[in-house]
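[step 3/7] fold_predict: job queued, chain A
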Amino acid sequence: MVMHKRLFKPVTALCLVFFLFFQAHAQQTAPVVAGWVEYAKVFPNNILIKAKLDTGAKTTSINAENMQFYEIDNKQHVRFRLINFDNDAGLFDYPVIRTAKIKRHFGNQQKRPVIQMTLCLGNRKQTVEVTLVDRTGFNYQLLLGRNFLKNNILVNSAKTYLLKDGCSSLVD
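[step 4/7] structure written:
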């Protein structure tokens, strides 16, 4: 019986530590519910754009106007312009990490350059692969695909603009 009393306090303390650790971890990764359209920020220029949350798209895609390709040390780079709904413009320059083949609704495949880009939705800031395409004629300049949404973002398809801007307080 004496042995059990000596073990009880350390075991209880250890259980408490594990419980608190897992509670804190669960709170950090708790799912956030977003509408099917939300405002997102594109870093490092902090441009606010309208984003469609597209659970049918594997990869995130952004509007890239006037794409210009060039090489540095045998590595392909791309420079492009992004203009938001308020006509705020940003010039972006990234190395191309690969080329993706995108299946289109009408059967064709399209090759698109892929870059690593930092985006923020609500208070979820992530660096993800993004395909570049000219979306000038579309309503939404950013499609957030499953590669962004998989980190505990649930989409309510009946609502829009559910998230508050938590991106402003996050630094790049």
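[step 5/7] annotate
Residues 1-30 form one domain.
The CA atoms of residues 125 and 170 lie 8 Å apart.
exit 0
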